Structure formats: structure tokens, C-alpha cells
Amino acid sequence: MHHTGDPGLLLGMEPDTRRVLELAFTRAAAWLDDVAERPVAPTVDADAVQDALGRLLPESGQDPVDVVQRLADAVEPGLIASQSPRFYGWVIGGTHPVAVAADWLVTAWDQNAVMRDPMPGEPAVEELAGRWLLDLLGLPAESSVGFTTGATTANLAGLAAARHRVLADAGWDVEQRGLVGSPGVRVLAGAERHGSVDLALRYLGLGAAELVAADDQGRIDVATLEAELARSSRPTIVVLQAGNLHSGAFDDVGAASDAAHRHGAWVHVDGAFGLWAAATPRLAHLVPGLARADSWATDAHKTLNTPYDCGVSFVARPADAVAALGAQASYLVATEAGLDPWTLVPEMSRRARGVPVWATLAALGRSGVAALVDGLAAAATLLADALRDVPGVEVLNDVVYTQVCVAFGDDERTAAVADALRAAGEVYASTSRWQGRTVLRFSVSNAWTDEAQVRRTVEAVRRALESVG
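C-alpha cells predicted for Aspartate aminotransferase family protein:
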């Protein structure tokens, strides 16, 4: 087939970049302008979205402007308004405008952000963001910082470094020899660890963790942990959490780390949304001894309010991260200074996830990040206090951070109230199971959830209760 060589004509589209981008900006800005007052739940299902888009692949190219217009028209009714200040589902934060703008630039620049020297622009920004995060969170300044897809892959990266080190200390090169025939790795984790830890362990071939008893708020019992550590001298990894999924409670990282290190174990902290407590003097008491762990994972999209794809993995001894995740190839241009980003995360090609993180940190500054985290915790406390005053509402957790778990009587009634609340469209909170009960979980993760939004939330709960009867 002969063609002219013009990629625009070959693909059946006009090479008019500006028109397409201006339309995308207009639609995105309109969405963000209205999101606080939109119905929070989607109004159509996935089949309706596909019907609106057209299910068949076009035989010929279409005007890119028309494509973007049709995309926005079809998809918006199927979106959940997770940026709403009354959205409390699944620990999903809002998006700071500066982070959105930075993310758009990253897409337009279209760099592979893994090679420091050939493509220095974005890696330089990410290095700055990494140093700022270490300073902000009080982690060892020499730690490596890798930007991952989210908390699951951040856990994966930290636990890969852990697997390398504990087996190397036992005289086994897992990178060369694999796990078959190795001394094996024992993983100890609290009974209420997050499922992303289980996934990361599965990906690494380590199997399920041995579970250590937790208290009624989900905090690991340090005395029981120490007793379990003493039962075996096998290579061991201890997984702790900063921010329980349901209660928001924090393991005693300092005491647990000291116990683990007495037995030669590595300590990894899953701090998907809770690690940010270290960024504010008002909440730093929740993470005493945080820096005494060996690796940490978090997700900036949850608490820092960046877009998705902004997970962060920290490893106290960078050589362990590089040994576990690094690769060498003749075509890759390795840096002679610092660390190449591809050696710290599972991917060898990726977008510059750290750039929106840098932009948000630069816009907020140290005091702004502290105010953001303090505000989320304060809104959660206000919400819990107000809900306790509503007849028929039971707050089940000690509200120490950003999580509020409630029930409305038995499981059937709780589920019914939750369904009524979501159907009304003004507030969205997610149901879960905790301590043998169905609960409605409010995860306060949006910087714009203020006192007025909390009051609207409580009134919506009252109406949902009344509708159930």
C-alpha cells in the first residue's frame, strides 16, 4: 500500500495538535469546575459508555476533535466524582490543580524518565522530589526513592529489597539462583495488614505472611511479634503498617523495628496513606521511630492529593534496592552520578511520576503539606463527633487519623443505609467488613473536605437513615 508519508494523513486525522488539546483542556476544566456539586455516583454503566462510544473499530480515521468530544460526552456520565469533597470511598484523594497541570506537561513531554544522563530533565525533578520527601517524612537522608505506579508496587519494591538482603545475609544470591533451594524467607505481618502486602509477597514468590495478633484497632502486638521472631532463625521480613485501612491506627514502628532488628529481621512499613502523618508535628506522635525501619511505601495520590500513578518506595540502603530491581543492558546509558531511576522500581520504561509530586510539594511547601494532613485528620474527627450525635449511628473506631468506620445496627441495616446514601448522590462512602461486622467506611482524603462539607455529609446520613426507616 502506497502512502504519502504524512503521519496525519496516514492515520486519517488532521495534524492539528492545538485544537485537540484546547478541547481536552476545556472539557477537563469544566469537569473540575463542577465536580464538587455533581452527583458523586456514576449515572450510567459500562455498557452504556461503550454504546455511546460506538462498539466497532472505525474503518477509516476520524477528526481528532470529534473523537475527543465523543470520548468526553460518553465517559463523563460513567465517572465517579472521586474529587468531590464528599467522596470518602477507598482512600482516594482529590487532585491539586498544580499536580494536574504538571501531569499534563509530563504527558506532553513524552519522556522515558528512567535514564538520568540522556534525558536529565525529569529525573532531575524526581531527585529533588525524593530528597524533599525524605526530609519531610523524617526518613534517612541517604535512602533511595523510587516512584512506582501506586502503593502495591511500592510495597513490591521495598519487599524485593528486603528479600535480597535477608537472603544475602544467609549466604544466598536470590537474583542469580532464585528461590528454589534457598533457606526460604519467613514474613511476619499484623493480622490486619492490607491486601496489597499479600499481593506483593505473592509477586515475589514469598507466599502468605505468618499473621501476628493485632489489638482491637488493628495494631500489631509487639510482644507477640517478638515471641514469634524468637521461634525461628530463618531469614525474616517484618511488615508493619502506618494507617490501618479501617481504623487509621498505626503500629508502633519504633518498638517493632527494635524487636525485629534484635533478631536480624528486615522491617518494611506499608504507609500507603498514613506515612504522611510524619509530615506534621501535630500527628508525628503516631509514627514514633519511623526512621528505624528499613523500607517504606506510600502513595501520594491518597494523602498528598496528586493524580494516580504516584506511588513512592523508600529503601534505607540503596544498594539493596539496586541489587533487587536493577538491570544492566548495553543499550542503557548508566549514569556515573547518583542512581538511575530504572534501578529502583519494577519498570524499565515509565512516565515521570515524581514530577506531579514535586509540583505539589513546591506549591504547598512544608507548612502547606502539614496543613493538608492536619486538615484531613481534623475533618475526620469532626465527622466522627457529629455522627455520634445522630441517633442510630455507632462509630466503631478510635478516630486518630483520617478513617471513620460506622454501623447502623445489624449488618442488613448498615448495608441498606449505605445503599440509600450512595443512591441519593450527594455523598459516597464504601462498605467493608471489619471485626466481623458490615461497616460503612469514611476515608477523609480530599483537601477540600472542610467543616461545611462535613455538615452536608452528616445531614445526608440523617436522610439516608430516615429513608430506611
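The CA atoms of residues 23 and 65 lie 7 Å apart.
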